[in-house]
């Protein structure tokens, strides 16, 4: 081919438009914020968002299975009126779906708080300033012309709390956590280990 068109992963605006398309025929409760769902689904493509919307609808349906007779060809109108997809349904669906690009990678949503980490107060403060402040106060960074950090490298001996600290940051940011062991990247073939590292970073982005 003499032309290549890269169809990439949609950004937050694109994800919001896709979610609106897949939920336009769904009855959504007032607490559903599609903007927040779009924000929380970084890395999701159109098919992933369609699956997410379907799973949220199924969660709503499962709650009414005790009052629905599946052998009947129709469902009572009163039951249909009482059914609406809520924010809880979407949150449950988020926990059961992953972006297509990460399905071969072990992804977890950690639940580690700062209080779970003893000591390292200076490190905690530095991480909050480098990672959390730009996310919580982006307007101030724009106002003062500051550029947030693009990445942080932890180093230290085994068992000193590097992984736990990364999980705490992921918890604070409500982000996925991808754990990769060194031996998983190493191979006997020339150049393949480097390619594995690049692939991991591409998936993380």
Automatic annotation (TrEMBL):
Any one GO CC term of the record: nucleus
Coiled-coil intervals: none
Gene Ontology BP term (one): autophagosome maturation
Annotated keywords: ATP-binding, Cell cycle, Cell division, Nucleotide-binding
One Gene Ontology molecular-function label: ATP binding
Positions of the AAA ATPase AAA+ lid domain: 31-72
Presence of keyword Nucleotide-binding: yes
ATPase AAA-type core domain boundaries: 152-205
InterPro entries for this protein: AAA_ATPase_domain, AAA_lid_3, ATPase_AAA_core, P-loop_NTPase
Domain of life according to the entry: Eukaryota
Stated name of the protein: Cell division cycle protein 48-like protein
Lineage start: Eukaryota, Sar, Alveolata, Apicomplexa, Aconoidasida
């Amino acid at each position: 081919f003499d032309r290549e068109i890269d169809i990439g992963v949609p950004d937050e605006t694109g994800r919001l438009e896709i979610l609106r398309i897949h939920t336009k025929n769904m009855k959504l409760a007032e607490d559903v914020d599609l903007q927040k769902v779009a924000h929380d689904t970084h890395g999701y493509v159109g098919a992933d968002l369609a699956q997410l919307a379907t799973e949220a609808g199924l969660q709503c349906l499962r709650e009414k299975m005790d009052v629905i007779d599946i052998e009947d060809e129709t469902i009572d109108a009163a039951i249909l009126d009482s059914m609406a997809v809520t924010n809880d349904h979407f949150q449950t669906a988020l926990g059961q779906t992953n972006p297509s690009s990460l399905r071969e990678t072990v992804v977890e949503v950690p639940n580690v708080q700062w209080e779970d980490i003893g000591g390292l107060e200076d490190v905690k403060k530095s991480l909050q300033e480098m990672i959390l402040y730009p996310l919580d106060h982006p307007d101030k960074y724009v106002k003062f012309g500051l550029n947030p950090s693009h990445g942080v490298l932890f180093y230290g001996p085994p068992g000193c709390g590097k992984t736990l600290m990364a999980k705490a940051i992921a918890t604070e940011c409500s982000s996925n956590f991808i754990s990769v062991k060194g031996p998983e990247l190493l191979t006997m073939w020339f150049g393949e280990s480097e390619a594995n590292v690049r692939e991991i970073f591409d998936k993380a982005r």
